[in-house]
Amino acid sequence: MSDDREPPPRPVDQPAQWHHGPGHPDVPLFLEGPRSRLAEFSRVLRIATEFIRGFRALHFIGPCVTVFGSARFPEEHAYYRLARSLGQAIGSAGLTVMTGGGPGIMEAANRGARDVGGTSLGCNIQLPAEQVPNPYLDRFVTFRYFFIRKVMLVKYSRAFVVMPGGFGTLDELFEAVTLVQTHKISGFPIVLMGTDYWKPLLDFLRGTLAHNGTIDRGDLEILTVTDSVEEAMEAIQPTTSAIPLRSPRKSKLLRER
Question: Where along the chain do its domains lie?
Fold first, then answer.
């Protein structure tokens, strides 16, 4: 199957690029102690501004399914192919695929949505080594702060699918699980795909955390673990089927200008 990559997607309210390394004087040093009240107030304003920008950019989309996973898997990897099939299934169900906007698993899921004419979005993050948005996004919005990005990915999603990944993927997984466990969000499916990859982690959760009582064994039921795209969609769709779908043409984010 030929693959003619389209021009890069247009960003939404793209902020100035951040190319500074850790030693640059403009990079904040969070261990330096309290700063002046004016500096702290300025930081609060920057955070609030970024929240508002995210709310404006993403307000008209939905319902979304967010796919997490490593940026390091190449196109020929089995997990890339699985994520692409998943993106196709999500897009075919009339749902929007949202990812972190980068390469690897994120690219594969966005690419799958594009394959079937679905809507494909990215919440990108500014990093010292800049993460380049993948070419299969209809639109993307870039955030400076990781915690704001995670709020957006939860706020505008109806389910998470977590593919194999590293520290960032684990961070997103456990934040979502904690929100469900503490009833901050409810009716929110979390699907782990890649049973072999996740088996050591699940063994740790059962054999150490649950065994020592630091979590309830029932907490493990929050997770659906599978290698099947069909089973993943069965877990996702009961939550999203009751939500009226919005046409992308009505969205200021997605409308062509």
Answer: 49-245
pLDDT tens, residue by residue, 94-126? 999 999 999 999 999 999 999 999 999 999 988
This prediction's pTM: 0.79
* 189 closest CA partner among 140, 228, 223, 139: 223
Amino acid residing at 132 = V
Fold observed for domain 49-245 = Rossmann fold (3.40.50)
pLDDT band at 29 (very low <50, low <70, confident <90, very high): low
